[in-house]
Every structure is written in structure tokens, then in C-alpha cells.
Design a protein that fits this description.
Helix content is 12%, strand content 22%. By secondary structure, it is an alpha+beta fold.
């Protein structure tokens, strides 16, 4: 997973440390370019839709959670302003693994 066009201010303020091996990624570019990371899922927040967490596994067997807001500027698709969970317009994406 590689992203070249990252907003400089978000890239420069990003810092994440692995809870197992204590490796620190000092930029979002560095984090997203690391082949030792694997995106394993998304944990939705039904109370605040922009507060969901992306979950990553590191090669050391550590798991990291990062708020979806950190990557919001990389997404060009539709944003849901109200939750539709269980309603007729709910496609069930955040409730089912695919």
C-alpha cells in the first residue's frame, strides 16, 4: 500500500509506535509504505462515524489501531453523515467481513 500525495501537515504530525517491538513510524508516508504492515480490519464507531479505527498487524505480531480521521484526506468517496445501521438503506459493510 503506497500513497505519494499526502498532505504535508498531516504527514509531519503523524507518529505511531508499535506496542510490541516499539518501532516508531515518524510520518504517515513511512507508515503507509511499510511492507511489514497489513491492514486487517476496521472497527466502526456508531456514535461518532468519523471516530472509527483502522487495525493493522505488524510483522512483530503487534496490532495497531489508528483513527480513521488520520486518513480522511486520502478518501474521495461518499461520507455518511448519519448512521443507517440496520435500516433499509444500510448495506451492512461495517457489520460483515468481506
Amino acid at each position: 500500500m503506497r500513497f505519494a500525495n499526502v498532505a504535508p501537515d498531516l504527514n509531519e504530525t503523524f507518529s505511531k509506535t508499535c506496542p510490541v517491538c516499539t518501532y516508531t513510524w515518524r510520518s504517515r508516508n513511512e507508515f503507509l509504505s511499510d511492507p511489514g504492515l497489513e491492514l486487517i480490519g476496521y472497527q466502526v464507531s456508531f456514535k461518532e462515524l468519523t471516530a472509527g479505527l483502522f487495525l493493522f498487524n505488524h510483522t512483530c505480531k503487534g496490532t495497531l489501531a489508528i483513527r480513521a480521521q488520520v486518513f480522511q484526506d486520502l478518501y474521495n468517496g461518499p461520507m455518511f453523515l448519519q448512521r443507517a445501521t440496520g435500516g433499509p438503506s444500510c448495506p451492512g459493510h461495517c457489520l460483515h467481513e468481506s
